Amino acid sequence: MRLKNIVYRLNGYYKFGKAAPKLRGKVYVNRVGEIQIGKNLSVVGHPWAVQFTSTKGANLTIGDNVYINAGVGIAANHKIVIGDNVKIGPRTSIFDSNYHRLDSADQSDLARKIVIGNNVWIGADCTILPGVTIGDNSVVAAKSTVNKDVPENVLVGGSPAKIIRELIIEDGWVRA
Predict the structure, then answer these.
(1) Which positions ≥6 away from 107 have C-beta within 8 Å?
(2) What pLDDT is recorded for position 100?
(3) What is the pTM of this model?
(4) pLDDT for 116-129, tens place per residue?
(5) Which of 150, 147, 98, 100 is nearest to 121 (CA)?
(6) Which SUPFAM superfamilies would you find in this protein's record (predicted)?
């Protein structure tokens, strides 16, 4: 596919990396804020469309060699950073905002930064909630809800996600 066609299909992307993204299926981009994409982004938008949103003043940054599967929704209302060599499974939701308060006494920030480290694998049907950092090389098991920080080199799972075990990751090893 020619870069001209990709730019048309990705109407609204702020920056391209060195290599144009690889797209299959439907990808919706709602951009008022900033979206930055590294090289070799691969998105599968079928059988379910993928959606990227960056609201006014927000920043969504996606690193190099990232794979995003079908049905993923990523919405930045403040800031979301996705590292290099990250794999995101189908039907996963990553939202940095709760969009509304729980009750009149709730004075917490609605939007809080999300950071997903390098070489992370997020399984199918996961939910990543506002304010979470997922450490490098970690794995989030399918159907998990991540509401607290995840350290480096661990497998987490459940709702809410808890550490299942530590992972042995050799220096320089990249998830294929």
Answers:
(1) 101
(2) 72
(3) 0.87
(4) 999 999 999 999 99
(5) 150
(6) Trimeric LpxA-like enzymes
